[in-house]
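so i finally got all the pieces together for this one. its two components total, 228 residues if u count the protein bits. some of the lines might not be protein, just check the labels. i wanna see the whole assembly predicted at once instead of chain by chain like last time, that was a mess tbh
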Amino acid sequence: DARVTQTPRHKVTEMGQEVTMRCQPILGHNTVFWYRQTMMQGLELLAYFRNRAPLDDSGMPKDRFSAEMPDATLATLKIQPSEPRDSAVYFCASGLARSGQGNTGELFFGEGSRLTVL
Amino acid sequence: GEDVEQSLFLSVREGDSSVINCTYTDSSSTYLYWYKQEPGAGLQLLTYIFSNMDMKQDQRLTVLLNKKDKHLSLRIADTQTGDSAIYFCAESSGTYKYIFGTGTRLKVLA
């Protein structure tokens, strides 16, 4: 049963600490997205990759956030230093970029990493 | 830039129809989606529509697309308590950049 796996599921940390969230996309998918969900802002796109190359990270605060795909099976989102306003649920999603008929472009989401920064 | 807007809350009685609305700004959107998020879980695709279609029906779900007004709606017939969730509208264009709305929290009253 193919699924997107995210770790950790929950993280509580203190302000100023580094936080790294990891995502294993579904094998064979060539796009990976990072979203942040808060009650106030809804679902914000932070970054997305196609074939491991970053295509858009304009939604990400560059001074403290970084996103990478060291290989096709791993995507990381790092926050350094973390701040209380970073508290949110972070979702990773993967999909297959459309090419021709038959591909709906569906995104498959992980269960999220709930981050609390004290 | 691209933007997708939805109302935040909707409350309906069990057995009634629910209609969730969405507006988007990107005229180059080629695919439009509805995702469902249950408590503590990630989003799951509910249904989708191509931009060259006006309507799509899938069992209790009906999607209507007004491309001129950039308006998308999701109708759930015979709404059940199990339909209580957050529903997200999303659009995707040729660059495959996925933009989601803020989500509509549907509450079904027994």
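Chain B touches chain A at residues 31, 33, 35, 40-45, 48, 88, 92, 95-103 (CB under 8 Å).
The radius of gyration of chain B is 13 Å.
anyway lmk what u think
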